[in-house]
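User: Hey, my collaborator sent me this sequence without any context and asked if I could get a structure. I don't really work with proteins. Can you help?
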Amino acid sequence: MAKYRFDKLFDSGEADELIPTLEVFVRELQVKATELRRAIAEVLKADPEAKALELPAIISRHPHLRAPSSKLAQLTRKIESFGCFLKDIDQGLIDFPFELDDGEVVFLCWQFGEPRIVAWHPVDGGFAQRKPLPGAAKPLLN
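Assistant: No problem. I've predicted the 3D structure and written it out in structure-token form, which is a compact way to encode the shape of the chain:
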């Protein structure tokens, strides 16, 4: 029996087909995250007491942060609605559940800027444990 269960398992072709759409969403997410970080930095300068608060409390205390925060959550939901998982905004890392020939479920791993899926890693692992897919060009692996 599989250790992990996912609603959707991808093959590399299905994941590759999503890359053009994901590139748009990830880039927008990166821009919006940078904008939100700048707005939070400004809040922390103006409201030193906010430094002791968790992010949800800061956003609650400063309602102008709600819209950009909601936009980040909306973009994340859009990305994950395809059945993949956003792992890192800044690096643009997205994982796709995939079943190896031996039945083990792993993640196909895509990084923003890669033209296609070139690597995978164990579900319990991460970017540092990436292994090349057969036929993947090694220069594409970071």
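In plain terms: The longest helix spans residues 12-46. You can pass these tokens on to your collaborator as they are.
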